[in-house]
Write a structure and sequence with these properties.
126 residues; mainly alpha
Length: 126
């Protein structure tokens, strides 16, 4: 995506501590904004607020979590436990299913995890 815009990525590196913005964060951002009606904040609906909320509740998924399937699975389930309560109880929406990977969660993560920018030093991408 960056390369198609003429941005060189050869020296791009991501911190393992960086938190990920997932598709359900963007969905929550848009739902919260719509729920506020005329009192809306004017958010960009890119999911930054909900991702930060996950971070502050210590259920956010970080880049380094993608490198260990067990840790990633545990963190995703913890994050979705809260997210699904909000989606179903507040917004009357269907829950996100971690196993099915609907709403682009696993698809987005699988393509991200294959990125050469996530390689551990001395390792090769799968």
């Amino acid at each position: 995506m960056l390369e198609s815009r003429g941005v060189a990525t050869a020296n791009l590196r991501l911190s393992g501590n960086a938190h990920l913005i997932l598709p359900y964060h963007q969905e929550l951002d848009a739902l919260h904004e719509r729920h506020l009606g005329k009192n809306k904040l004017g958010t960009t609906k890119r999911g930054i607020g909900p991702a930060y909320a996950d971070r502050s509740m210590r259920v956010g998924i970080r880049v380094q979590d993608l490198l260990d399937e067990k840790i990633f699975s545990e963190k995703l389930r913890a994050a979705l436990e809260h997210t699904n309560k909000v989606l179903t109880r507040v917004f009357n929406r269907l829950p996100v299913d971690a196993d099915k990977g609907d709403r682009g969660v696993l698809g987005a993560l699988c393509s991200t995890a294959r990125s050469p920018h996530l390689r551990r030093r001395g390792s090769r991408p799968r």
